Amino acid sequence: MHAFKYHRPSSVSDAAALAKGDAKLLAGGQSLVQAMKLRLASPSDIIDLGTIKDLGGIKTDGKSVTVGAMARHAEVEHSADVKKTIPALAAMAGMIGDRQVRAMGTCGGSIANSDPAADYPAAVLALNATITTNKGKHEADKFFKGLYETALKDGEIITSVTFQAPKRAAYMKFKNPASRFAIVGVFVADFGGSVRVAVTGAGPCAFRQADMEKALSAKFAPESVANIKVSQSGLNTDLHASAEYRAHLVTVMAKRAVEAALK
Fold first, then answer.
1. Looking at the domain covering 168-261, what would its CATH class be?
2. pTM of the entire predicted model
3. 150 closest CA partner among 140, 159, 164, 160
4. CA distance 141 to 143
């Protein structure tokens, strides 16, 4: 690990002022610290967001759930409000990593990092979330741009994420047995008349599956997606799975997610 300067700002504006050049924001540290240990990242400054109280908390109005950027996965997993309003979101948070990861990892950090195998990006797309930052708001469909790439600009910090409550929803993933990252994960959300299907783990970043959305909007049933063939073009191939296998898993996980949502 290379040397760096460590900062503990007390406000978002102070953190934004420090976020220049090669500086990096530290949320839960589950990705950044590991990259630094392997010398894959060598920031000049580390800006710890953990002391900024305004970035925490979970709120709901019955129609949506707003999660503070620094809310831990475990908080979302165990929140009575989240379980009542969007139970699929709480269940998804409970699938992330292990207890230690869920105790430290944050909602905002996961979304800002846009890891291709992360779970939260699928929830953002499927639940038509709004990402609020110190500079404005981002629509879910315009946020994820590519591998570890988002619409965030320099000095822009996520402050909260608002997820829309669906009629019913579920998230299912085929996980790596060691890391529990999604080799493929599919989040299905039925808003009563329209359905959103989001996929993570399969491509460079999370994306929506239009053919499945159309089929499920016509009839929300497992058989509606069972025979949909997903193109392997542009999907990931690595030591865990080929693009062809990932394409197959998208259909399998989508079918399971619909089945779970109907229970």
1. alpha beta
2. 0.96
3. 140
4. 6
Taking only the tens place, the pLDDT of each residue in 18-53 is: 999 999 999 999 889 889 999 998 999 999 999 999
Q: How many residues does the structure list for the chain?
A: 263
Instruction: Give residue-wise pLDDT tens across range 165-207.
Output: 999 999 999 999 999 999 999 999 999 989 999 999 999 999 9
Number of helices and strands (H, E) in the chain?
11, 14
Tokens of 69: 């950027």
Task: Give whole-number Cα distances, 58 to 25, 65, 75, 93, 260, in Å.
Answer: 21, 7, 8, 13, 25
Tens of pLDDT, residues 227-250: 999 999 999 999 999 999 999 999
Q: So what's the architecture of 1-48 in CATH? A: 2-Layer Sandwich (3.30)
Same fold, 1-48 and 168-261: no
Q: Give domain limits for the chain.
A: 1-48, 168-261
Helix (H) or strand (E) holding 103: helix 99-104
CA distances to 9, 16, 152 from 20, rounded to whole Å, are 14, 8, 14
